[in-house]
Amino acid sequence: MSLSNKVAIITGGGSGIGRATAHRFAREGAKVVVADVNPESGERTAAVIKEQGGEAACMVVDTSSAQSVESLVRQTVGRYGKLDIMFNNAGISNERHSVIDMPVEEYHRTVAVNQHGVFYGIKAAGNAMKETGGVIINTASIYGWLADHHCFPYHASKGAVVMMTKSAAFDLARFNIRVVGIAPGLIDTGIVSEWRERPDVWNKIQKAQMRGRAGTPEEVANVVVFLASDQASFLNGHVFGVDDGAASFKR
Ligand SMILES: NC(=O)c1ccc[n+]([C@@H]2O[C@H](COP(=O)([O-])OP(=O)(O)OC[C@H]3O[C@@H](n4cnc5c(N)ncnc54)[C@H](O)[C@@H]3O)[C@@H](O)[C@H]2O)c1
């Protein structure tokens, strides 16, 4: 098992990519803190891990609050004695408007979770890992590299995550803390349920992918497990596309 005795926090662990990664981490021997703003879904993830003989705890967090994220890290270290892996993964999409019609509140709401939440996670985890080293993994998006219509706050926040990953890796290298990111393409999770519920739209979007389908959260989790493990010991300061090549060709 590649994560034996590692202690990991996963934000957004109640659903989608976070939930799939929590299950994979637990199967690789990690003690997993499933952190989510939604206590019911977080508890469900943790319960399945425990039923399967793994170690997990659910903790409620709102990643848009620095205090809440600091408390999450403090509670984790209090419970398990250390923190080895921080997966800053919680994220939301924005209401669709052109930039000139985008409500200012909607911009701030999106950036608060997707961008500021990652900063708070890097800062709190970096402090907790200073003596021990560790790995911080941030969820960006191919939308941190490529623009689409009516997505301005999401693009702003995910573009920031790409750059924050590089900047933090530089600052934290002296503590033997690696900081990397993932940039998923279209993945079949709750965040795209609005499209999923409309089969015509969903089919059209899937057809636009390189091999005509969305990815699964498990396909992303496989990459995150690798990045978190010692197998990835020389990977640092990069954001890796998990998108079946979507960011590599013009549609
Ligand atoms: N699914 C995709 O196509 C796709 C593509 C690129 C990037 N992403 C990113 O992947 C990450 C995970 O999303 P997903 O696809 O699994 O979607 P999801 O909606 O299934 O999961 C997101 C989880 O984050 C939690 N969350 C939302 N706001 C939170 C907050 N303030 N504090 C704590 N938890 C919060 C939700 O309750 C949910 O459990 C997000 O950062 C998202 O932007 C997803």
From TrEMBL:
Keywords: Oxidoreductase. Pfam families: adh_short_C2. It comes from the Bacteria. The keyword Oxidoreductase applies. The keyword Transmembrane helix does not apply. Belongs to the short-chain dehydrogenases/reductases (SDR) family. This is NAD(P)-dependent dehydrogenase (Short-subunit alcohol dehydrogenase family). It comes from Desmospora profundinema.
